[in-house]
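Slide 14.
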Amino acid sequence: MRWLSFVPLMAAMGVGATLLAGAAPRAERPRYLLTDREGFVLREAELIAAPLVTAAVWSPDGRYLLAVRQEKLSPPPTEPVPSGALSLITWNRGTGRSRVIWQRPAGAQMISQIEWLPGTHAALIVLNWLASPPPQPEPRKTLFWIDAAHGQTRVLGDLG
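Slide 15: predicted structure.
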């Protein structure tokens, strides 16, 4: 009769096992990605730069992200480039922080090229802008040097 005391326990275990076996497996996204040379770990989504981001480029080593944020204002028909305030933001993967390293007030302007220099944390950008107001706007291009590690921006010169 002693075994009768275990009947409720065995019944509960049997019901639990039946429920577990009959339950559909949960489909989870993989939390990692492996390639022949690298491994990537997926993390929660994180805001790096507030909208509107018009371009973003990773540094060659993946440590920094350089993002271009531009307020979108509809340009007058006479202006060939978008208008709006413009800023550059760097995000450091190691610290998980982003910071604005350069900004310009609203005007007819846009970043047309971003290129990281190989083996460095520096990038070159080309800013297209209009130098004089309509009706005779003069299109200009300026080359900038960006140091993402130190958060510095320097004008290298006009391209024409």
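Speaker note: The beta strands are 32-34, 39-41, 53-58, 64-70, 86-92, 97-104, 109-116, 122-130, 139-147, 152-158.
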